[in-house]
């Protein structure tokens, strides 16, 4: 028996109208139901978007289309607020500019505010900075090559230690203060090196050269109104170019040998001079001693003669006989004596001198024989 299709029902009698299927549910009906609960199913995405739009219209005055401008305005204001706040570190100073013209006050360390973009800020480091000049790390660089006063080429590597004392003048009086400082430093170093021999740059007078260069740089930068104070200009290295390094080292070795020979000669001269001075002092001392001895002897003889003369004046005969006897004693004490009698002629005498000499020789022979 065929099933009735009245009211759109299915063969099981459960179907109805409204495009429902034979099980009482339309094939295109949403799972979540329409406008009410979802009967436990997942939420509909389109429904969520629609509800969010409705809520946004209720929040934003004038509706969603009218509040877009306000959102953009808030974003712009937030960006401007972020750009208007800046921080200055302890080793920095800030200079604010209003329409490109710097203000008089200087911003110290801390958090600051300015009206951006009407006002801008320039940050300057005020602690000591170092500018290296020379061929460090670049063998082909010629900025350190200089001509000395004795026509030698030297490669000087030095640094400039400086601090910024006035940030306003540092920023706006010179277009490129660091580049200007480098050019002035090179010019000052070439000027000073050009007046001195190469030996002064290599070893002898580096400290004096550094002082002169610093004074020249400081004077020039003050003329420019740079706001920079030069603390020191240390010379880190000074050497001949690589092309002539061998020849220069040979000259250095020859100069060192010369210095060594001169030192050895000075030592030898001092040694000989010391010995000669010692000998001269000894001769002078001996001569002085001899003079004193001779003078003293002469003085003593003169005094003895005077005393004898005084005695002679008192007793001439006695003094004459005593002098005669003393003189004959000194003359005859070492001579062989022969006594002659005028009446009897030659008289035999006892040879005492020969006997004493023989006795002495015999005693010496006996001593030699007794000792091995």
From TrEMBL:
GO molecular function of the protein, one example?
A: peptidase activity
Q: Which residues does the UniProt record annotate as the domain Band?
A: 83-252
Q: How is the protein disposed in the membrane?
A: Single-pass membrane protein
Q: Where in the cell is it found?
A: Membrane
Q: Where is this region: Disordered?
A: 1-47
Give the compositionally biased regions (Low complexity). 20-30
Q: What do the Gene Ontology cellular component annotations say?
A: membrane
Q: Does the keyword Manganese apply?
A: no
Compositionally biased region (Gly residues): 7-19, 31-40
Any Pfam family the entry gives: HflK_N
Q: Which GO terms describe its biological process?
A: proteolysis
Keywords attached to this entry: Coiled coil, Hydrolase, Membrane, Protease, Transmembrane, Transmembrane helix
The residues forming a coiled coil are 244-293
Q: Where do transmembrane segments lie in this chain?
A: 59-82
Q: Decide whether keyword Protease is in the record.
A: yes
Family membership noted in the UniProt record: Belongs to the band 7/mec-2 family. HflK subfamily.
Q: What does this protein do?
A: HflC and HflK could encode or regulate a protease.
Subunit description? HflC and HflK may interact to form a multimeric complex.
| Name under which the protein is recorded | Protein HflK
Q: Which organism is it from?
A: Rhizobium straminoryzae
